[in-house]
């Protein structure tokens, strides 16, 4: 509540008779509170923030300038009016209160300051000084929100408000201003900083990309290219032919901050091919970086290239040499021999050549593939959307930037490179340059900034700029390295050779150094109980919790990034996992699974966990731990590390078991955050394998029931991971446990999971309801919803997405749509077509739903297959007992799922399927409309699902003769299988050969006649000729050998 006796100064502010008196009172208040948090707290109690907000609301000009006048004045310095001076002082006061830290967020939010501040950032309505002060106030609020107590959502509130469509035009106008004035450059830096601090969610990233913010940042980046004098030679000449010559920006001013621009771009394009392509297709980027071949090579480069080619280490001479490649040293571009030989013998999954191609070409050409379900699904339809285009010169230029800069600029340039590389827009040969030119520099950057922290920085609410820079590098560089090496064995080898394992383990250990204090101590006061007056009352008149120290936030961020790098480094080689656990890092990973960690302890100090050992978590209660409070992001990262460490049998049986990993992960299955549950299910997958010592304790704790509950979740990702874990539970399990799993899961629900397109059907039903709703609001979130003064061109009718660089209204004085010359540019038209294809592949909800359905169906079918597989032979057990157990489970599955129903489901997975055959297409998808996602679609059998179907049939055929006869009796099912003998997937062909061999095998003499009948039936259906074709023509030796064996058994069966 407000205090009973208000100071005279507050009365002067409220009751000022004229502008001069109120301005003088505000200046006096500012002089009193700047640098004095105690005074700020007192004035909050008097309710002064509400008074300041009221001043800002009432001092807006009664008659705002017209749009044309304001556009002409935007970015220009002029004398401030009385109202503008008053608003400037009021905004400075709000910025000062926000700089007090998290304690002042509560009164600021209580008074609704964020919308009031945002009303002062439009360059069309406010002078530059007012805009700059408003942005500083927002930046201070963002800084305070980053130090708020764990669990607060202040950053989310600010991001949701700032990135609303109504404010995007203001941010865009600031970033696209042509003024070189210092005040404007500071505005741009603050906008970029706000984006990098607040843009964390995918919907915010898409909003900024579709609102033109990404294009504006790309234009600023291009201006730095011009400033550095590194524009591609003849770029202007090339631009004359396609209308992009005039788009080359002016050089960036010396006061512009490149690191902030790179960081803002990096957070927007992260984890998205579509947004990464929007960066590459930005008109300014294409203007300064046209794909121009530059030859011949310089004398020194030519001699180096010749030497490498003669050594067999480079193929640069036969490749196109871009202009930016001349800024980089020549590096060997071929893969190491170990990798090359490995790929030659075992090509990537899904890669296949006929035997004739294999021998005629000498060796297969393997292109790098990035894991992306949406991309893989659309590869056939959009395959030529990006593979035919040359690599953008922006990528080698960014690598050059990494080599020629330092600290934050180096880290952020590498971050942008990582996003483009992971999106698949770099040449395969660029991987060698990243491994030799980028990874070592990033590791060196970590070593340089991994210093002892000064004692003054550990307990101070204020951090020196140099210290803050070092902390930022340590927080972000490990994540950049993780994104680069995650799916590349070659880059992991490069990072390992640079000593990144020891570096990242040290970072994680440093993040667990105990803190003497979590929050800054309150300043001394002669009246220590004076704060009690604010204990009650409205939120606008009392301060909130004090928040945490900057060192606290730094340690949590460093902990998260270190765990991400650990998970990325150990995905392939057991050597790296062994090197990591030898650093005694497992206790720190285990403590990261808890919200309130305690001191990491060795396995000898850690109490044994098991059933009923709840007391072992007595120290893990929610309290002010000196080791911090782990947010969900840290727990999720720790789960990923546990999951990958669990791929090693040695780790499962020693390190992970000794440190009691099982129970912490099991408890996370019941975490309130769904994302944590998903990550915990993933970690459990490897902890419950049949050779894991943690399997039995987890089963006794009731993990089967928990996983079955998650399998009924509304979240498709949680259903997927829980089915994956259940699939591992039944591997090698006894029949009683298998029956328990099936009963807990419910047979009817399992049939629904493997049979129905749950996500796709739900999406189609929702879209149908939306279309039927009368006068429904069909505005797409990607469209600009602010009213415009001009009409859109007629050819844009019916389009739900417009690429901002081609169709956005200019913020210039004309106020019209962008010149048609840009829309008529051939390069811009090709770029737009490419973006539409990528947008449909990435953001189309139907594609996402289909990917979710297929993944869940695959795991459900694998679960059935594992149910009917007998456990491994135990000592003293007989083969007849195994057959008996298997027969019992097959009959149990038939009884619960329905024999005919199961075979019909398996057959349906092998047929071409038409979804929603009577749905109509509303608009052509080429126009950028996603409404076509609800139209009828043809779906072909998916490779992984086909593999699961063949495995089930193969297991059935390995059972008793009665079950083999059941399979033979499924004529339609076998006919559908025959069409997959020429599958491009080697595993499908191998499994089909295995199935044929199982169908014609014989257990004893009593089955001899049945074998003859089965062999003759299979021959009559043409399977013998298919096997002989595979035996002679298949490119894979394993397939040829299995086909040979199956064909021999089939011939022996009817001969």
TrEMBL record:
Source species, domain of life: Eukaryota
GO BP annotations listed: proteasome-mediated ubiquitin-dependent protein catabolic process
Keywords, ordered alphabetically: Cytoplasm, Nucleus, Repeat
SUPFAM superfamilies: ARM repeat
GO cellular component term of the entry, any: nucleus
Annotated spans, Disordered: 516-544, 597-626, 770-796
Biased composition (Acidic residues): 775-784
Localization per record: Cytoplasm; Nucleus
Regions of compositional bias (Polar residues) in chain numbering: 532-542
Biased composition range(s): Basic and acidic residues: 602-625
Main location: cytoplasm
InterPro entries tied to this protein: ARM-like, ARM-type_fold, Armadillo, ARMC8/Vid28
Transmembrane segments: none
Gene3D superfamilies reported in the protein's UniProt record: Leucine-rich Repeat Variant
The protein's name in its UniProt record: Armadillo-type protein
Species assigned in the record: Diplogelasinospora grovesii
Taxonomic lineage: Eukaryota, Fungi, Dikarya, Ascomycota, Pezizomycotina
């Amino acid at each position: 509540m407000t205090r009973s006796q208000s100071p005279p100064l507050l009365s002067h502010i409220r009751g000022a008779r004229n502008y001069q008196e109120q301005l003088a009172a505000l200046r006096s208040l500012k002089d009193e509170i700047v640098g004095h948090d105690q005074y700020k707290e007192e004035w909050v109690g008097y309710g002064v923030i509400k008074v300041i907000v009221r001043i800002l609301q009432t001092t807006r000009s009664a008659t705002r300038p017209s749009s044309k006048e304001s556009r002409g004045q935007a970015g220009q310095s002029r004398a401030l009016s009385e109202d503008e001076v008053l608003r400037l002082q009021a905004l400075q006061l709000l910025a000062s209160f926000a700089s007090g830290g998290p304690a002042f967020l509560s009164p600021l939010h209580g008074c609704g300051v964020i919308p009031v501040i945002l009303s002062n950032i439009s360059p069309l309505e406010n002078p530059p000084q007012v805009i700059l002060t408003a942005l500083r106030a927002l930046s201070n609020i963002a800084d305070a929100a980053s130090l708020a107590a764990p669990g607060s959502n202040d950053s989310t509130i600010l991001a949701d408000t700032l990135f609303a469509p109504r404010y995007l035009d203001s941010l865009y106008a600031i970033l696209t201003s042509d003024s070189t004035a210092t005040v404007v450059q500071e505005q741009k830096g603050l906008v970029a900083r706000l984006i990098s601090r607040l843009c964390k969610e995918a919907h915010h990233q898409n909003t900024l990309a579709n609102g033109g913010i990404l294009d504006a940042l790309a234009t600023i980046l291009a201006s730095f290219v011009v400033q550095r004098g590194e524009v591609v030679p003849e770029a202007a000449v090339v631009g004359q032919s396609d209308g992009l010559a005039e788009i080359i920006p002016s050089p960036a001013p010396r006061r512009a901050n490149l690191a902030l621009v790179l960081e803002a771009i990096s957070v927007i394009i992260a984890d998205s091919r579509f947004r990464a392509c929007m960066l590459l297709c930005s008109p300014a980027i294409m203007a300064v970086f046209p794909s121009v071949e530059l030859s011949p090579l310089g004398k020194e480069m030519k001699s180096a290239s010749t030497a490498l080619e003669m050594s067999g280490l480079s193929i640069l001479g036969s490749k196109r040499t871009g202009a930016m490649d001349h800024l980089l040293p020549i590096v060997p571009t071929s893969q190491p021999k170990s990798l090359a030989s490995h790929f030659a013998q075992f090509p990537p999954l899904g890669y296949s050549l006929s035997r004739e191609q294999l021998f005629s070409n000498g060796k297969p050409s393997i292109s790098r593939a990035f894991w992306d379900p949406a991309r893989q699904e659309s590869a056939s339809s959009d395959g030529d959307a990006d593979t035919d285009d040359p690599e953008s010169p922006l990528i080698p230029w960014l690598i050059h930037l990494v080599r020629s800069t330092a600290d934050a600029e180096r880290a952020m340039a590498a971050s942008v490179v990582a996003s483009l590389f992971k999106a698949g827009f770099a040449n395969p040969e660029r991987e060698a340059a990243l491994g030799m030119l980028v990874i070592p520099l990033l590791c060196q950057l970590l070593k340089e900034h991994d210093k002892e922290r000064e004692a003054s920085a550990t307990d101070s609410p204020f951090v020196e700029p140099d210290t803050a820079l070092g902390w930022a590098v340590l927080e972000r560089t490990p994540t950049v390295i993780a994104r680069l090496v995650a799916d590349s064995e070659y880059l992991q080898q490069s990072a390992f050779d640079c000593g990144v394992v020891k570096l990242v383990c040290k970072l994680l250990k440093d993040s667990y150094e105990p803190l003497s204090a979590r929050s800054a101590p309150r300043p001394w006061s002669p009246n220590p109980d004076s704060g009690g007056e604010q204990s009650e009352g409205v939120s606008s008149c009392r301060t909130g919790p004090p928040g945490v120290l900057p060192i606290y936030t730094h340690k949590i961020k460093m902990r998260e990034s270190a765990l991400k790098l650990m998970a990325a480094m150990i995905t392939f080689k057991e050597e790296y996992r062994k090197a990591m656990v030898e650093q005694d890092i497992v206790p720190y990973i285990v403590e990261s699974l808890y919200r309130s960690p305690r001191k990491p302890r060795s396995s000898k100090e850690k109490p044994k966990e098991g059933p009923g050992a709840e007391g072992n978590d007595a120290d893990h209660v929610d309290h002010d731990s000196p080791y911090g409070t782990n947010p969900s992001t840290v727990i999720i990262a720790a789960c990923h590390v546990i999951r990958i460490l669990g791929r090693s049998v040695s780790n499962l049986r020693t390190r992970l078991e000794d440190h009691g990993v099982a129970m912490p992960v099991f408890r996370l299955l019941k975490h309130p955050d769904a994302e944590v549950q998903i990550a915990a299910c993933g970690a459990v997958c490897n902890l419950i394998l049949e050779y894991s010592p943690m399997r039995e304790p987890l089963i006794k704790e009731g993990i089967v029931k928990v996983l079955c509950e998650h399998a009924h979740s509304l979240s498709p990702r949680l259903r997927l991971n829980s089915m994956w874990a259940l699939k591992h539970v039944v591997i090698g399990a006894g029949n009683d446990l298998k029956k328990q799993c099936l009963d807990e899961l419910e047979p009817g629900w399992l049939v629904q999971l493997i049979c129905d397109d749950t996500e796709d059907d739900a999406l189609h039903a929702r879209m149908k309801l939306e279309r039927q709703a009368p006068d429904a609001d069909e505005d797409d979130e990607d469209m600009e919803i602010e009213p415009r003064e001009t009409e859109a061109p007629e050819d844009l009718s019916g389009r739900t997405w417009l690429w901002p660089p081609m169709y956005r209204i200019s913020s210039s004085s004309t106020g019209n749509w962008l010149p048609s010359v840009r829309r008529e540019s051939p390069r811009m038209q090709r770029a737009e077509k490419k973006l539409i294809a990528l947008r449909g592949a990435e953001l189309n909800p139907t594609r996402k739903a289909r990917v979710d359905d297929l993944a869940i169906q695959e795991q459900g079918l694998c679960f059935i297959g594992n149910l009917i597989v007998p456990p491994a032979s135990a000592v003293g057990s007989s083969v007849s007992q195994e057959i008996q157990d298997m027969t019992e489970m097959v009959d149990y599955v038939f009884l619960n799922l329905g024999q005919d129903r199961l075979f019909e489901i398996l057959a349906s997975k092998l047929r071409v399927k038409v979804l929603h055959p009577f749905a109509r297409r509303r608009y052509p998808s080429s126009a950028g409309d996603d409404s076509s996602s609800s139209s009828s679609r043809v779906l072909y059998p998916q490779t992984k699902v086909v593999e699961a179907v063949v495995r089930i049939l193969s297991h059935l055929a390995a059972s008793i003769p009665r079950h083999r006869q059941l399979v033979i009796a499924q004529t339609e099912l076998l006919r559908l299988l025959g069409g997959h003998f020429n599958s491009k997937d080697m595993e499908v062909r191998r499994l089909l050969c295995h199935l044929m061999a199982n169908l014609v095998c014989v257990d004893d003499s009593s089955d001899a006649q049945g074998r003859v009948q089965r062999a003759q039936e299979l021959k009559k259906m043409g399977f013998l000729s298919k096997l002989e074709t595979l035996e002679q023509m298949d490119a894979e030796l394993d397939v040829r050998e299995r086909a040979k064996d199956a064909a021999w058994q089939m011939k022996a069966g009817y001969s």
